[in-house]
Amino acid sequence: MYTLTLKWSRGAGHRRLYPIFFIKTLALRQTNKNNRQMNCNYVDLHIHTTCSDGFFQPEEVVQQAARVGLLAIALADHDNIDGIERATVAAGPLGIEIIPAVELSSQWHNYTDMHLLGYGFDYRDPRLIAELNQFQSFRAQRNERIIAAVNRKLVGEGRPPIAVEEVRRLAGGSIGRPHIAQVLRGKGYVSGNEDAFTRYLIPCNVEKHYFPADEAIRLVHACGGIAVLAHPPYVTRDRRQLEYLVTELVELGLDGIEVYNNGSGLEDSDWLIRLAQQRGLVITGGSDFHGEPGSAIQIGYGLRGIRVPYDCVTQIKEALNRRAQPIRWA
């Protein structure tokens, strides 16, 4: 049996004895072995549905979560909470916890489109509903303007335009750019999503609206929840800058960091865990599942097989208790 400690990857002497790739591989194998022995319980705290830019209805997402044996999930749709009630009803007979969540489009200084996750809030709060309704209204107008711009480009290329209704039928709800990409792919205009974004969606983009980070955190707190920085490596991969940013956000009331995310490898996750522990922050994680055809990301499994332990839910509940807020989904 191997006994792994952080000293293995930190000590210079150990690096000479054990190459870092060997240590990472061994650590992953040992972790998976320990998980099997302990019969670990898993969750997914970052899932999207047709209520924003996902491809599956909330009820379908719940069914998929049940099939892979997840104990809890969080629908973190972009600036939208419409799927929470539906998921809660669907999950009841299956014994799956549905944690109220949302992914807020935010910005702070030069960090634009920085996402903040809210967890455990009262999703029936009138203030939250009013704020998000404004965002949804702009989002609908934005996506129609993007489609109009894409169509101008298609006509200029001598190709028939796409219809808003066609994209809306595919989306099954709120339209997102991945849905537009899928229609372009279905018509044979592009080879895949990356091609669609490069040739059409990025050049035809319409700027989003953002919550200032301090306002986003205050809104989540006012509704009884906690605020978590989503997928930090996608904000910046400069660790010094990220540490400065987290320090600022903590002063604004940030409660946690999404440690287990698709942008983090083993070494990144280890560093984020230490950062969270140093700042007294909650550790969360999720697959960021959208359900795009051909994606390697599945409910309960992020890139590189990332899985999220139930302990993250426990940490969220403890943080809410420390804030003297009721656990509203229990």
What do these coordinates show?
This protein is an alpha/beta fold and 330 residues long. 47% of the residues lie in helices and 14% in strands. It is built from 13 helices and ten strands. It has helices spanning 7-10, 12-17, 20-38, 58-67, 83-91, 126-156, 164-171, 177-186, 193-201, 213-222, 239-252, 266-279, 311-322; strands spanning 42-47, 72-75, 97-98, 101-108, 111-119, 211-212, 226-229, 256-260, 282-285, 308-309. Helix 4 links the parallel strand 1 (42-47) and strand 2. The longest helix has 31 residues, at 126-156. Mean pLDDT is 87; it is low at 1-39.
Could you give a short description of this structure?
This protein is α/β, with parallel strands linked by helices. 47% of the residues lie in helices and 14% in strands. The chain is globular.
Please give the radius of gyration in angstroms: 21 Å
User: For the record, what is the CATH homologous superfamily label of the largest domain?
Assistant: Metal-dependent hydrolases
Strand content: 5-15%
Number of domains: 3
Main β-sheet: number of strands, strand sense, barrel status?
Answer: 6 strands, mixed
Strand order of the largest sheet: 6-4-5-7-8-9
Helix and strand succession?
Answer: HHHEHEHEEEHHHHEHEHEHEEH
Total strands: the figure is 10
Q: Class of the largest domain in CATH? A: Alpha Beta
**Coarse shape:** globular
Q: Quick check: average pLDDT?
A: 87
Could you tell me the CATH topology label of the largest domain.
Answer: TIM Barrel
Unreliable runs: 1-39
Structural class given helices, strands, pairing? alpha/beta
Number of helices: 13
CATH architecture of the largest domain: Alpha-Beta Barrel
